[in-house]
């Protein structure tokens, strides 16, 4: 997996599509400034419109080797909005609260292994 860049010009929908291509077993929840998940028509708005305080173009380089904790902190620092990484667990999504020190790549691999194992036992 190669590093990739997130910019403030991406909508939440575009961000999630790009995220899913990189990490198919991880889900990214973006929270608005009022600390609720971005939903409805908001998912079509660019990050710099969801947080009008951003001003200039901002970007974040995402390295699959960075920890979930480091990514969540960097996203908040760069875009001023909270984000949460969830891992696929069968047919549901589980938070990564207790495994935030794992890298994004490790989380994705674990999600793939759990989902594959789960599918075999159904």
UniProtKB/TrEMBL annotation:
UniProt-recorded name of the protein: Uncharacterized protein
Please give the organism.
Larkinella rosea
Which lineage is the organism of this entry classified under, starting from the top rank? Bacteria, Pseudomonadati, Bacteroidota, Cytophagia, Cytophagales
